[in-house]
Specification:
By secondary structure, the protein is an alpha+beta fold. The chain is 20% helix and 23% strand. β2 and β3 form a beta hairpin. The chain is globular. The relative contact order is 0.15.
């Protein structure tokens, strides 16, 4: 990751809190992705990520499938990638600039308070990008689909959404010409469906239109990254997810997360309580299939299946995937 400070458009400095009549800075946190960026800087920074594009399989117009695959399924014999010991793609050097890679530029903060972590780049987001790129190259399940990204960190509040919109505009040149991307606010703790803007000229730019609400309901692919770290937010997230997915059983969520461990006095051990709370919402897909005829197990629930990340190459170059990142495929069973 190439990181440089943006002097022209600084974001507001970290907020202050007052405790016991004395002013003190809120606790600052930093994503491991930002290691190597200038430390102790407030304001916006620009990072550049190199993404190697996976080879697309040939699409057969007669069968509606990619060569060697059933429609919407992964090939049982995926293309062979040369990987190094860290799982990175090994590519032959070329004299001319490669056409199989793109550079994305992301404006972000290097550190932030907990309520503003949506201003940072988190490892799970980059792992999710690897997964989506791999699935695009291996199947047609994302082709022509309406996708909704429900959060990457906590994308809530005008400051964070402004930053998100700026990053969309900055990288618009690499999008498909028919792609449409809208940044909207979806507060998981608010009522459902989201409030519709009656007068777009007088409302916040991140309010929903009625047409967008209908598209949200029809979306078949949901994405989220690094939204599992607070039990209260996890509860709110799954509440929103249930309302979204119960209206359309074909919806599927791909959720990337990082297990975070802390020592607790209650457990006298280093545990990942936030992760345990997340797992309490999921029922294992294999168990559900085994007990599908059991009437006692027919109540609505979330079915979860963990993706094997050893089969997903790293297309995003400038980050360390680590061992504590996971991706889950989640569906809702009525």
């Amino acid at each position: 990751m190439e990181c440089k400070e943006d002097e022209e458009e600084p974001l507001p400095s970290s907020p202050q809190t007052t405790t016991g009549g004395e002013s003190a800075e809120e606790e600052q946190v930093m994503s491991e992705v930002h290691l190597g960026c200038p430390p102790f800087h407030s304001g916006s920074h620009l990072s550049h990520f190199t993404i190697y594009l996976p080879p697309r399989k040939v699409y057969d117009c007669n069968t509606g499938t990619f060569a060697g695959t059933a429609k919407g399924e992964l090939n049982s014999t995926p293309p062979i990638f040369n990987l190094d010991e860290d799982g990175d793609l090994v590519l032959t050097r070329r004299r001319k600039p490669p056409k199989d890679q793109i550079i994305i530029t992301i404006q972000h903060n290097i550190t932030s308070s907990i309520p503003r972590v949506g201003l940072q780049i988190w490892r799970a987001e980059l792992v999710l990008a690897d997964f989506v790129l791999h699935m695009i190259s291996m199947s047609s399940i994302f082709d022509g689909k309406i996708a909704v990204e429900l959060g990457a960190g906590t994308d809530h509040g005008e400051e964070i959404l402004d930053n998100c919109a700026k990053n969309v505009n900055t990288n618009a040149g690499i999008f498909h010409q028919n792609a449409q991307i809208h940044v909207r606010e979806l507060d998981w703790k608010d009522s459902w469906p989201p409030q519709v803007a009656e007068d777009l000229q007088s409302k916040k730019s991140y309010a929903w239109t009625q047409k967008e609400i209908e598209e949200l309901k029809k979306a078949s692919v949901l994405l989220a990254a690094d939204v599992i770290y607070s039990d209260d937010l996890t509860d709110a997230f799954f509440s929103t997810l249930e309302r979204l997915m119960s209206e359309n059983p074909e919806k599927v969520l791909y959720l990337a997360l990082e297990k975070r461990y802390n020592f607790t006095l209650d457990d006298l051990d280093v545990v990942a309580n936030g992760y345990s709370h997340f797992r309490s919402y999921l029922r294992d897909v294999d168990d559900a299939e085994h007990n599908e005829l059991d009437s006692s197990s027919s109540s609505p629930c979330f079915l979860g299946k963990q993706i094997n990340l050893t089969e997903i190459p790293k297309y995003v170059r400038e980050y360390d995937r680590g061992n504590d990142v996971e991706i889950w495929e989640i569906k809702y069973q009525h």
